[in-house]
Write a structure and sequence with these properties.
This protein is α/β, with parallel strands linked by helices. The protein contains nine helices and seven strands, in the order βαβαβαβαβαβαααβα. It has a single domain, classed as 3-Layer(aba) Sandwich (Rossmann fold). It has a seven-stranded parallel β-sheet with strand order 3-2-1-4-5-6-7, sandwiched between helices. Helix 3 runs parallel beside helix 4. It is globular and about 60 Å long. The N and C termini lie far apart (50 Å). Belongs to the short-chain dehydrogenases/reductases (SDR) family. InterPro entries: NAD(P)-bd_dom_sf, Sc_DH/Rdtase_CS, SDR, SDR_fam. Its EC number is 1.1.1.100. This is 3-oxoacyl-(Acyl-carrier-protein) reductase.
């Protein structure tokens, strides 16, 4: 019960990593608000978790409506009197149009960067004054391994995540005196619906070839790192960009090929 008495807000939380964070943080005693566009679906999930004895509630947030970030935070504070922990989980990209520098339309590129950056900037900007007034808080940004490992595609997504990594450090620097910490979690390939629906089996196999822990991560494993940053276990940790990708990109670039050669000997 490391989060007993804490109020948490998780964006984009009806599935995948966001939902895993909701469940994990609620199990640690927090009152968790699900920021969601599909309010009815979120209420169904919250009801199921409430039956299990967890405190889960729903607040409306639509990433395409920037004003909803402020109203989302204000609703949580209105209901609970405070907000202790903010998990900025939203992130999007369309792999069919978010390609490389030679072929990606500028409007598609800047649209991806804008919506992903806004999801962190606006929600954090709205929450920080309330956290400061309450003596502090923790902001956890769900970034991506793609923010530190350049790819041959998804130029908008990678650029937005790299910017989120730097924004994380800026928030940590600028808000430390208010006892507000800010850290980022960088998932690698994670077994979510988004990955399974948008990436081919061939691509997944190739990616995992270069991942020392040769499997996709689980949303619950990402949520475990989020819990660390949400709890007082990380009370003296801020501005950190933590790779949770099974070691992807850590060893020599020819790691995958070397492993294959070794296995054939």
């Amino acid at each position: 019960m490391r989060l007993q008495g804490k109020v948490v807000l998780v964006t984009a939380s009806t599935r995948g990593i966001g939902l895993a964070c909701v469940e994990r943080l609620a199990k640690e005693g927090a009152t968790v608000y699900m920021g969601a566009r599909n309010v009815e679906r979120a209420k169904e999930i919250a009801s199921e978790l409430n039956i299990e004895g967890y405190q889960v509630k729903v607040v409306y947030n639509d990433a395409t409506v920037k004003e909803s970030y402020k109203t989302m935070v204000e609703e949580v504070v209105s209901q609970e009197g405070k907000i202790d922990i903010l998990v900025n989980n939203f992130g999007t990209s369309n792999p069919k149009v978010d390609l490389d520098i030679k072929t990606t339309d500028y409007n598609e590129f800047i649209g991806t960067v804008d919506i992903n950056l806004a999801s962190v900037f606006l929600s954090s900007q709205a929450a920080i004054p309330h956290m400061a007034a309450n003596g502090g808080g923790s902001i956890i940004n769900i970034s991506s391994i793609g923010g530190i490992r350049p790819d041959i595609s998804q130029i908008g997504y990678g650029t937005s995540k790299a910017a989120i990594n730097y924004l994380t450090k800026l928030i940590a620097t600028q808000c430390a005196r208010d006892n507000i910490r800010c850290n980022a979690v960088l998932p690698g390939m994670t077994a979510t619906d988004a990955v399974n629906n948008n990436l081919s089996d061939a691509f997944k196999e190739f990616f995992l070839k270069h991942t020392p822990i040769k499997r996709m991560g689980l949303p619950e494993e990402i949520a475990g790192t989020v819990l660390y940053f949400a709890s007082d276990d990380s009370a003296y940790t801020t501005g950190q960009i933590v790779d949770v990708s099974g070691g992807f990109g850590m060893p020599t670039p020819v790691y995958g090929d070397m492993i294959e050669l070794k296995s054939k000997r």
